[in-house]
Amino acid sequence: MARRTGRRPGNPDTREAILAAARAAFAERGFDAASIRSIAAAAGVDPALVHHYFGTKEELFRATVAIPVDPAQLVPAVLAGDPDRVGERLVRTFLTVWDSPVGGAAVALLRSAVSSEWTARLLREFLATQVLRRVLDQLDVDPAQLPLRGALVATQVAGLAMMRYVIRLEPVASADPETLVATIGPTVQRYLTGDLT
Amino acid sequence: MARRTGRRPGNPDTREAILAAARAAFAERGFDAASIRSIAAAAGVDPALVHHYFGTKEELFRATVAIPVDPAQLVPAVLAGDPDRVGERLVRTFLTVWDSPVGGAAVALLRSAVSSEWTARLLREFLATQVLRRVLDQLDVDPAQLPLRGALVATQVAGLAMMRYVIRLEPVASADPETLVATIGPTVQRYLTGDLT
């Protein structure tokens, strides 16, 4: 967020054109294959303007999904410390973000992804490339299992968000965060590094 | 389903009035507190007509959420057999229903619950009273922990549904059901009967 305050908001129409082109590119081709250059071309602007308005490709992606937190800043704290408690720290970090004032944006994204195939694709790409990959790349596990491990983590974390913030099923809806860290953390840990079968 | 074929469909307006009254009652007061008598009164019909059109209170509830399977018929198979594998059988049963032609209704309900507070309340009540309670009542665990255990199961199972059928995150989206049973079953088992902290 610190870098954005120093960036000029720019022409609203140009910003919106870039965002629309970026949404289409990330949803259709995925984060890795979409380039700033092709997004700029689709929006009819110079690539330098895309960087000027939105910063890096990662930052542009976050702008398209309106997520106000930067996984690149949160993931190092999740990975630091006892490797057997990465699961707990991941759940704690998710709950800290969602329970905070900016958490509404994450819940809104989840709601939107359920009703829109377009947003679902963006959320899928965001989860896979910006959150799960960053965590999994640092773990000492069989690379062939990484996609399944990441998707299993996503099932548990998304389900926690659904039941706590959207469906509001008690007692998960109003449970103390540490209760959820203690009960759900070991699940995430097993999906990340444990014996899967 | 078998019983419904023998039941007259009745006047569409009357059926709809009963369903609307039942939805309001189940969402506002919950399954246990809502009575057939009060639902009939709200719809302006005789309670006998509610039974005639919809059968038991459980069957009326299923009609309000448009769920074509009867948890009362599925739960006994989940509970039968090795008590240490209830989690696996629960995940297998869910996947069998969702992967079947009637699974679309369950996914539609999940989608609808995300956008409608009304449907969210109905789904919450349905999960708690028709699915989770039936399973948990038969397990040998501390009754004080039952609500948390049930809600934890719901986080994992709803998240699996979200990622497999709505967001379609690979490889969970197209994974063989038995892969998911083997990997997610132990999570559900721990939430049901394991050490939670």
Topology:
2 copies of one chain form a homodimer.
Chain A (H helix, E strand, L loop, with lengths): L1 H4 L6 H22 L2 H8 L3 H8 L2 H9 L5 H9 L6 H14 L3 H13 L1 H20 L9 H21 L10 H17 L4
Assembly classification: homodimer
Mean pLDDT of chain A: 87
Number of domains of chain A: 2
The name of the CATH superfamily of the largest domain in chain A reads Tetracycline Repressor, domain 2
**Unreliable residue runs of chain A:** 1-6
End-to-end distance of chain A, in Å?
Answer: 41 Å
Taken from the alpha-carbon principal axes, the silhouette of chain A is: globular
The most extensive interface, with participating residues per chain, is: A-B, 42 and 42 residues
Largest sheet entry of chain A: none
Protein name (chains A, B): TetR family transcriptional regulator
Organism (chains A, B): Micromonospora halotolerans
Keywords (chains A, B): DNA-binding
DNA-binding region (chains A, B): 35-54
